[in-house]
Every structure is written in structure tokens, then in C-alpha cells.
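cache lookup: miss for this entity combination. No prior model stored, computing from scratch. Input as submitted by user K.M.:
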Amino acid sequence: MSAVAPAPAPNVGFRSRVADFSSRHRSLSVIIGMVIVATVLLIIVLLPPFNSFSGQAVWMDGFTIAGIFVLLALGLNIVVGMSGLLDLGYAAFFAIGAYTYAFAASSFTHIDVPFWPMILIGAGIAAIFGILLGAPTLRLRGDYLAIVTLGFGEIVPIAIENSSKYTEGPNGIGGISPPSILGTPFPTTGNPWPFYITMLLLIIVSMIVIYRLQDSRLGRAWAAIREDELAAAANGVNTIVTKLLAFALGASTAGLAGVFIAAKLQTVTPNLFRFDVSFTVLAMVVLGGMGNVWGVAVGAFVIFMIQSVFLKQLNLFFDNVQIPIISDINFLDYQFLLYGIALVAMMLLRPEGLFPSRRRSRELHSDEDQAFGELGDELGASPE
Amino acid sequence: MATTTVPETQPSFIDTFQRLRLGPYLFVLAVAIIDYFIIGPAQFVNGLTIGAIYALVAIGYTMVYGIIELINFAHGDVFMVGAFTSMYVLTNVLGQDGPIDEPAVLAVVLFVDFAVTMLLLGILGTAIERFAYRPLRHAPRLAPLITAIGVSFILQNVIQILFGPSPVNTPQLISPTAHVNVLGLEVGVVNIFTIVVAVSLMIALQLFVSRTRIGRAMRSTAMDRDAAQLMGVDINRTIAITFFIGSALAGAAGVVQGLYFGNIQFTLGFQAGLKAFTAAVLGGIGNITGAALGGFIIGFVEVTAGALGVFVWGQAAVFVVLILTLLFRPAGLLGQQLGERA
């Protein structure tokens, strides 16, 4: 590397100060950032045109559900974005988390374990399933993992649906207890604040943990495996354990989201966890920018909002204006067509996603020599 | 004792057996025979028929994987598009809506249907390769996998928009009630037709790959793309031809699927693709004969699950087969042991 990069200019502008602050105090900036986002969202929906769609409470409910998808995308990002393993059955772990809570706290089993420890238990059980599934397949080439997880994602809802004796089959388990604090259960209708705040806390904790993991020895091992598995193994990374950990941690995030959705909806049915959930979350991760925590979170939020609000509003809009052909189109039917086109276009034109992680985007444009140099600098300079 | 000579011994029976590599074939045969006694002759024929369809789809997976090491997730949906193309050709172009009794007419209609569907599907496959996979040939492995999923979404959604989300009836040109007596067993004509079509296409493919110039180009590209290029093989053309053949076979499978089951749905490709992929892995991915054997085994597994009254678990059984294969024989029945390549 003959061209030595010039010494970084002293941080002057506001932007660079923010960037500097956020790289020094990541956890703090995650907390501040998420609180700002959560507050701003609540203010935005009071402004036109959003206030005409629905009231603030309904919006908050929607944001809470969107938060579940943000959690899912954050978890899948560990597997797909950070470690480069393609998991196509991610919804299975989501289902496992949800049914774990449904078994532990519902009128169906007459057990009532509180919500808060179940978050960890649900995440743990999903992680165990992740390890059980990953152990036979992670030794093999990456593509096998994709297909096995695809099969697993198919099987779990089928298994739930067909073991009516234990899971109430397609009707699902109802009467799940909502979380409670000091003996007061969360209101299931009306006041959306408790669930909203809980979701916010879950996302903040997950993001902090994921950022810490990414900067840890394990996170660098994930990046190494993603970039070149053979080279990583040759440099002493235990590839199987590392991949299993990625898989288990990703699964546990889905389990967490599952416990939350069971508590939020008070009912779980196998149809909530079909493969379209897996693919939607994958689209969120890819479009948001694989490997970038904030990018993936934004991607998840944007896609969820597009499919749950924007397409519906588009339908309503064209129904009202009565343009002959377009009014007949139900835009929700085109959701997967749009995903498909977006996935293909994204891979061809901008494989690093809308909000790429810096390292990831350099990998994908590795033919640029300068990028190689920078990559070497960064890897060499990163403290142990 | 200046020179040591290897003692000439009669090759033992086990040596000969191992050299002939008959093990996998005997295994499949054993599975078939045992299954015959479990599920009875009628279901056995059914299993063979479904297996033949899976085998045709599995060949497409295995050929593409063999040549560019990509799991073509869109392949199951290509099969589904084949079924719909055939339905469209039969009903809207040829104006058929039911069984044809006249053998000559039947033969002509079937021939036109197969020819048109296979040609169109081959073009579709080549187009998918050209636009979704070729630009990413040197990209990280994850990239073409994701475009494959995208293509799969696009195909499913387009068919759903064109033909609606509910199952669509297809004309069953060969009357499902027509039977012939084979070795004292009543066998449906459509079953025999399906099996004969599938097996002859497989034999034709095997001959094509092993005997022709293009087939040799395909094998050499699969073995080492760079070296093949240095030897003057046009890589792009060879890969395009591979996609053409694989997709045309999936189209043929789609035609027989429609003829055999009489109704098709846009979600057909997803599950069939998963099963056919399992068949390809079971047979040894990259190996055409293996894919055919795997297809028949998967057919047996599914039909057996149905015959034992646990049809809903058939999908799960196929998946268990996949996991067991990956655990105990990741190279598949006929595959070479591949090292792990990231």
C-alpha cells in the first residue's frame, strides 16, 4: 500500500461529530437513536396525510407489529448479513418462540408462566432448535443450509397444523396471557403504550447486543467466514462452532420476536408463520443492506409499512379516483412480484442494499483496488 | 527376494461387486421391492408415476448445479409455469377439454403440446439465466441465490395474476379411467404414458450428454470452467444450453403433471421444487442418473406416506430423507465425495 491515506481531518462539522460520537459510544447512540425514532414516529402520524389514515393508537399498534419484523430482520441479519449463511426458513424459529409462550401461558395448557422470563426461555428454545437443525447441515456447503432451512420452514407449520392434539391444529391456541407488570396485565385494546414501550426496549437491547457481537472476536470470525471460509479456517477460526453460534443467535432473536407476538396477539395460528414470512424478512434484510444493523432495521420498517399501509392506501386511492384499469388492480396481490423484482434488481444493480455496511459493500465491489487497500487497513487496524 | 510381485489372486466377489458400483442401484431396487409389498401394486404404479415427474424436475436442478454450482430456486416454479403453459396450449390454442379417443389425434395433440411447451420453457430458462444469473457469475455465492428466489417470486406472482389463485383444471387428454392389463395387473394408460415419456427423455438426455459435442462441452464445463474455456469451449453458450435443456425437461414434467392430476395451482412449484431438489441431493447432486433414481425414491416415499394414511406427513417424510442423506451420505447415492467449498 504505497498510497498512505491522509491523516483524518479534525472533526468539525456536526455530521462528523455525530459519526464520531456514535462510533465511540455505540450503545448510548443506539438508545438515543431509537428513542428519537420512536418519538418522531408518534409525532409524524399526527400530521397530514398520515392522521387521515387512522388515529395515533392504531398507528402505534402498527408500529409495534412493525417492530416485530424489525427484530426478525435484525436476527436474520446475523445469519445472512454478518455470517453469509442463507436461512430460508427463518419463520420456523419465530413459530417456535410463539408456541413456546403459547404453551407456557395460556388457558390451553393451564400453565401461567410470566412473560418476562419467557422471553429468555423462548429465545433459548429457538436457539436449541437452531443448533439441532444447523449441526448436520452447517458442515456442508452453504447452499445445502438454504434448502434444509427452506424445508424446515415448511415442516414446522405443517407439523403444528397436523398435531391438533397438542397445538389445536389450524385453529391455533387462543387465550394467551398478555405480559403484566406488578400484577397489572397489559391492556390488550385501547392503550397501546405498554406494548410499544416493551417493543422499543426489546429492539434497543437486541441492537446493542448485536452491535457488541459484531465488534467482538465472534463478529470478526463471522465476517471472515462470510468472506472466505477456507481462509478463515486456515487462520484458526473454528468454522463449525462459529457458524452454529450465528445460526443459534439468529434463531434466538426470532424466538424472542415469537414470544412477543404471541403475547401481543394473545393467539397464535400456524398461518402466521408460513414461508412468506421467511421470504419477507429476507427481502427486508437484503433491501436494507446485509450486514448493516441500522440499515436492516430501516429496511424492515419501510417494507412492513409499504405492505401494510402504502399498498392499502394505494388501493383506496385508485378506488376513489376511478381510473378504469388501475382501479381494478389489487396492489396487495402484487406484493411478491414487487419483492421479486426488487430482489433481482438489487442484486444486479446494488448488491450491498440501500444502506450498506461499509465492509460488505467493499466485498461486493472487490475489483476496485483501492477497496482492497482500505479493507486491509481496517482489518489490520481493528484492535483485538 | 530382489523383486516383489503382487500375488495374483482371484478377485473376490466383494471386489467385483464394488468395482461394478451396483450398490446404489441395488439399494433403489430393494427400496422399490420392499415398498411394493407394503403399499401394493396399484399404489406402487402411482409411486413410479409421481417419481417419474420428480425425476424430470430433479434433472434440471442437478444439471444446473453441476455446471454452475447454483441451486436454481426458480426451477420448481419453471416446472409450474410448464404445467400452466401446457394447459394454455391445450385449451386455448388446440381447443381440447377432455379425453381424446382417437389414437392418431391424441398422438398429434400430445406431440404439439410437448413440443411447444418444452420449447417455450427452454426459452424461459435461458432468459432467466441470461438476465438473473449470468451477470452474477463472479459475484459472491449469496447473490445468485437471492436473484433465484426473486425470479421464483416473479414467476409465481405472474401466474397467480394471469390464472388466479385457485386450482385450475387441465384437460386430461388420456382418459384417467383407461386401463390396460400388464402382467395381470390393471395399470392406467396415463401412468404408463408418464413413465415412458420420462424414461425416454432421460435416456435421450443421457445419450446427448455422453455422445454429442455439446454434451462433452457441458461435461468439461462442469468439471473445470476455466480449463474448458481454454480448450475453446464457449462457456456462455454451454451454460445457456444447459438451462435450456433443464427447463425444457421441467416443461415436459409440467405437461405430464397436468395430464396425470388434472388440476394445477400456482403454488405447485414450491413444494415440487423442494421434493425434486431432495431427489437431486439424494441421488448425488450433479449426477443425472442419480437425480433420476432419487426422483423415484422420493415418489415412493411420498406415496407410501399417503398409503399408510399419513399423507399430510409426506412432505415431512421427504424432508427427513433430505436430512438423513445430508447426515450420512452427503455426496448422495451416486455422487462423488465433494470437498467443502465455501
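stored under new cache key. Chain B touches chain A through 48 residues (CB under 8 Å).
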